[in-house]
Specification:
Elements: H1 2-23, E1 43-46, E2 54-56, H2 81-98, H3 104-116, E3 131-133, H4 145-154, H5 158-164, E4 169-172, H6 180-198, E5 203-207, H7 210-221, E6 236-242, H8 250-256, H9 265-268, H10 279-289, H11 294-311, H12 317-320, H13 328-335, H14 342-356, H15 358-367, E7 371-378, H16 400-403, E8 408-409, E9 441-442, E10 452-456, H17 467-478, E11 494-496, H18 501-512, H19 520-538, H20 546-560, H21 576-588, H22 596-609, H23 614-617
Parallel strand pairs: 1-4, 1-5, 5-6, 6-7, 7-10, 10-11
Antiparallel strand pairs: 2-3, 8-9
Helix pairs in contact: 2-3, 3-11, 5-17, 6-7, 7-14, 10-21, 18-19, 18-20, 19-20
Bound molecules: zinc ion (2 copies).
One zinc ion binds near residues 30, 32, 168 and 198.
């Protein structure tokens, strides 16, 4: 018996070697035999923030498991709830009891460390030893099913994988809280590895969001003249930027400058939370915040924001890479002047230069015959976290100026001034109309007017759920048909937002549903909805609001056929909570509940004395 098992094992071992050998014919791993002689240029995705698995370790390379035995990931932090409760319990109780900051700020400083210690770089800017990055030094074809699932969940380029072959698709992983310079150096080596493995002498790169900041470093430090680093330009075929943070995000600039909206208490109690969540929840939180006096809340918030930057963010050169160039000099002065921060400052100064040279370096691509494309979102207000939030057009996370390489635009919800003429900063063709149909953007003022695609009303985070954007990127990477925004009417310069992830799932549900019990009318309605959905998904020009309309049609048809519950009514309207919160703001300002008697007595006295008439007295 034992013999049989060992023979079987031996056979299966031989087979497994054979199957590896089959992939690696001629010692290579691609369908073009590692000769690089196929028409498909390998593409390397440089993902956005948090789009790779980084595991918590004990500092000795062992992954830490949670109580269910699952590996713990570190982005953007890890909350050991028990430990945090132990840290804050008594300070919170005493602060509530005495209505004074009784060690709450100090406790929260500790909590900041407990949440982020695994992401804090050292004084040289090197990655923390408490985290381990999952890397893919191989094509997607060679990845395990779990790795593939991770990659496609982050960047759904399955279609590209099908067309080009997954053996020509690579996913460059990095720690978003890591060392920027190390990441850039590793990216260069990764490009060399892909060239060697596939036999192609050039690769496409796809910098997405924070990946755009990393590409700034690549094109600056690897131009053949930088501290002995080689020239990467001859190794690039195309660059396809997707919502790239080429000049940071004003949110991060505001964080570094501690110029934050919610530190203004009037805004904290009316406006801030409504921008981030549904109004009902926001209003109840505002009411609950009254449990503490406003000066305590103000002090605790200020202290905690300061500690977050001082203890965590300022050590992370990859976060500095998201600081807009306009904010960098002041922020560096504030956080990096200490001699202890000299090495970090040396590196962030290097990056600052890369950021300032970003346009020049992208222009240099053309000298090497490299085509650069850009896909951006606009008219989606940036989160109301920093005080720059309502000042310029954006995609919710990054300012349009940064992603579009400097395009002039009106603020979200506004249009360019009447009589505005196309400036033609970078376009010399008088036949081109680069003003968006909604008169919000002048694309001729962005560095790549003829190869930048704009999506109206699209939010940064839902970019990967817009199937048009994925199809566009796939086509640019896999074929050479799309040379610019005029090549294909199916991919115009200005297009609309859409989010078809839910719709695709719904379509699958509708097609697979058991329709045997339906009346002729129900079946007909459903068939029409399915046909409309398929037509929509086949189109790559979105009419404003069309996807939502079709999604509703399909949902209604399914509901009418009894195949799906009707959608519940939308979120509860803020009734009582809004009245309460705004009423408190009106009568008691930002004061906490315990201060109300004082406010009332003061008001009473001023009533008795009569209202002071300052202007008349003067
Ligand atoms: Zn090939
Ligand atoms: Zn043009």
């Amino acid at each position: 018996m034992k013999k049989i098992i060992s023979v079987l094992l031996a056979i299966s071992f031989v087979f497994s070697i054979c199957s590896v050998a089959a992939v690696a014919a001629d010692g290579t791993k691609t369908h073009c035999g590692g000769e690089g002689n196929c028409n498909t240029v390998p593409s390397i995705v440089i993902h956005g923030i948090g789009q790779s698995n980084v595991y918590l370790t004990d500092g000795n390379g062992n992954r830490v498991l949670d109580k269910d035995g699952k590996e713990i990931t570190c982005f953007p932090m890890y909350a050991d709830v028990g430990a945090i409760v132990r840290t804050v319990l008594f300070p919170v109780l005493f602060t509530l009891l005495f209505q004074k900051n009784m060690g709450l700020s100090k406790a929260l400083k500790k909590v900041v460390y407990q949440l982020f210690y695994m992401n804090i770089c050292d004084s040289q800017g090197k990655d923390s030893k408490y985290c381990e990055l999952e890397e893919y030094p191989k094509s997607v074809a060679a990845c395990t099913p779990e790795e593939k699932a991770t990659i496609y969940r982050n960047i759904p380029l399955e279609k590209y994988g099908e067309i080009a072959g997954e053996d020509h698709l690579y996913y460059f992983a990095y720690n978003s809280f890591g060392n920027n310079l190390d990441i850039v150096d590793r990216l260069y080596r990764y490009i060399e590895m892909v060239k060697e493995e596939t036999g192609h002498d050039k690769v496409n790169i796809v910098p997405i969001s924070l990946g755009g900041a990393i590409s700034n470093g690549l094109l600056e430090y690897y131009n053949g003249t930088y501290e002995g680093r080689p020239d990467v330009y001859p190794s690039i075929n195309k660059v396809v930027y997707i919502v790239p943070a080429l000049d940071g995000s004003s949110i991060i600039g505001d964080v570094f400058n501690l110029d934050l909206t919610f530190l203004n208490l009037d805004y904290l109690y009316n406006g801030f939370l409504e921008g981030l969540m549904d109004e009902n929840t926001a209003r109840w939180i505002e009411v609950a915040l009254r449990i503490l006096p406003d000066d305590v809340i103000e002090e605790v918030l200020n202290d905690t924001c300061y500690n977050l930057v001082n203890d965590v963010i300022r050590y992370c050169t990859n976060m500095w890479a998201l600081c807009p160039s306009a904010d960098y000099p002041g922020a560096a002065e504030k956080w990096l002047s200490d001699p202890e921060m000299a090495e970090i400052k040396r590196q962030t100064d290097m990056f600052y230069k890369a950021q300032l040279n970003s346009d020049a370096n992208i222009k240099r691509l053309a000298e090497f015959g490299i085509k650069a494309f850009n896909i951006v979102d606009y008219d989606f207000p940036i989160y109301n976290v920093g005080n720059s939030w309502n000042k310029e057009n954006a995609d919710g996370v990054i300012d349009l100026d940064s992603t579009s390489m400097g395009a002039i635009s009106a603020n979200c919800g506004e249009t360019l001034p009447e009589g505005y003429q196309q400036a033609n900063t970078y376009c010399s063709n008088p036949d081109h109309n680069h003003i968006s149909p909604d008169r919000v953007v002048d694309a001729s003022t962005g560095l790549l007017p003829d190869t930048t695609f704009y999506f109206d009303n699209q939010g940064h985070e839902s970019t990967a759920r817009n199937d048009i954007i994925l199809t566009l990127a796939t086509n640019i990477l896999a074929y050479d048909d799309i040379e610019n925004v005029y090549s294909d009417p199916n991919f115009p310069q200005f297009n609309q937002a859409r989010d078809t992830r839910g719709l695709k799932n719904l379509l699958k549900e509708a097609k697979e549903a058991d329709k045997s019990g339906l009346t002729a009318e129900q079946a007909q309605e459903l068939e029409k909805a399915i046909a409309d959905t398929e037509a929509l998904l086949a189109s790559t020009v979105e009419k404003e609001g069309e996807t939502k309309k079709v999604e509703k049609e399909l949902k209604d048809a399914l509901a009418n056929a009894g195949l799906r519950k009707a959608d519940k009514d939308k979120e509860k309207e803020a009734g009582l909570s809004k009245k309460l919160s705004l009423g408190m703001l009106d009568k008691f300002g930002t004061n906490g509940l315990s201060e109300y008697p004082i406010v009332l007595v003061t008001k009473l006295f001023s009533l008795i004395k009569g209202q002071p008439k300052a202007d008349k007295a003067a």
